[in-house]
Amino acid sequence: MTENSIHKSGFVNIVGNPNVGKSTLMNRLVGERISIITSKAQTTRHRILGIVNTDTMQIVYSDTPGVLHPNYKLQQSMLSFSQSALDDADVLLYVTDVVEKTDKNEEFLSRVQKTTCPVLLLINKIDQTNQNELETLVERWHSLLPKALIMPISALTGFNIDNVRARVEELIPPSPPYFDKDALTDRPARFFVTEIIREKILLYYQKEIPYAVEVIVEQFIEEDDKISIKSVIIAERESQKGIIIGHHGQALKKVGTMARKDLEKFFDKKIFLEMFVKVEIDWRNRDNLLQRFGYQLD
Questions:
Q1: Collapsing DSSP states into helix, strand and coil, what is residue 226?
Q2: Which end of the chain has less neighbouring CB within 10 Å, N or C?
Q3: Which among 30, 36, 24, 76 has a CA at the least distance from the CA of 49?
Q4: Residue 195 near residue 29 (C-beta atoms within 8 A)
């Protein structure tokens, strides 16, 4: 950076309802696989930062849980992550898609309407509609968020993402960097271990199981050529523990194999992964456990 150049830094927060493609967009903008992705709602539980650095700029993208009406304390924490993203954004990316109704979750939308920062309204999955339907949708959204810049995108294929990125770069304010210039995220390595294992649980198991479990890392020993990991899957009931382990341990073994392969790609090292299952009754409503697992409580 030259003496006369101005450094820009800002928080670009991605919000919206579940399953509209926020995490896919996050990974596309950051250029790295920061957020886990599945087709199931509530895949993202935390607020996750992905940091893009150049000599003159630092953009801190923030992926948030899909906005939902909470039924238990875990979901209350997830909602607070999403709501806090409205308060500290320099630029807000409100993500919807071509299927979602414009009046879905009006309470959260009303908070977006009141925000004073620039808002980009991104209509995702435009490959699933036609020009006439898209134009009608743009008109509806313009009436709801008249100050927002509306941009149709496809996070999956990358369509129009370069234009989103360019607009974001124009909007972030002059500021010194908030994080070290070599940082990719604010999360430690252990966090990504838990997320990758949880992603495989979401993909492998059905019904309530993926939503009733949490993953913790009890041991993470990194050497030059390998990492040894001991992880524990927390279930809410004994019956869930049995399903997770499976007949002769086959289900747990399958999930472990899937996770280990992705972890080796993520860390670019050999991974030795041990997985166990433990029951913590009703953990989603227990403050002490939620805090231990990294959730913020009101």
A1: strand
A2: C
A3: 30
A4: no
Tokens of 74: 């875990």
For tokens 């996070």, the residue is 155
Name 226's Cβ contacts closer than 8 Å, sequence gap at least 6: 269, 270, 271, 272
Q: Hey, how many other C-beta atoms are within 10 angstroms of the C-beta on 147?
A: 11
Q: Please name which of 132, 120, 130 lies closest in space to residue 160, comparing C-alpha atoms.
A: 120
Dihedral of CA atoms 241, 297, 92, 50 in degrees, nearest 10, equals: -60
CB atoms within 10 A of CB 278: 12
Integer Cα distance of 218 and 109 in angstroms: 39
Beta strands in the chain (DSSP E): 8-16, 48-53, 57-63, 91-97, 119-124, 149-152, 214-222, 226-235, 270-279
The pLDDT of residue 3 is: 54
Q: Which two tokens stand for residue 295?
A: 């959730």
Number of residues that make up the chain: 298
Partners of residue 59 on adjacent β-strands: 10, 52
pLDDT confidence of residue 298: 66
Beta-ladder partners of 236: none
pLDDT along the chain (298 residues), means of 10: 78 94 95 85 88 96 87 88 89 96 88 95 96 95 96 96 97 96 93 96 92 96 96 97 96 97 96 98 95 85
Q: Are strands 149-152 and 57-63 parallel, antiparallel or unpaired?
A: unpaired
Q: For residue 160, what are its two tokens?
A: 């129009």
Pick from 188, 196, 216: nearest CA to 257: 196
Strand 57-63 to 48-53 pairing: antiparallel
Q: 122 exposed, middle or buried (CB, 10 Å; 0-12, 13-18, 19+)?
A: buried
- Dist CA 285 CA 41 (whole Å): 19
Residue identified by tokens 């920061």 is 34
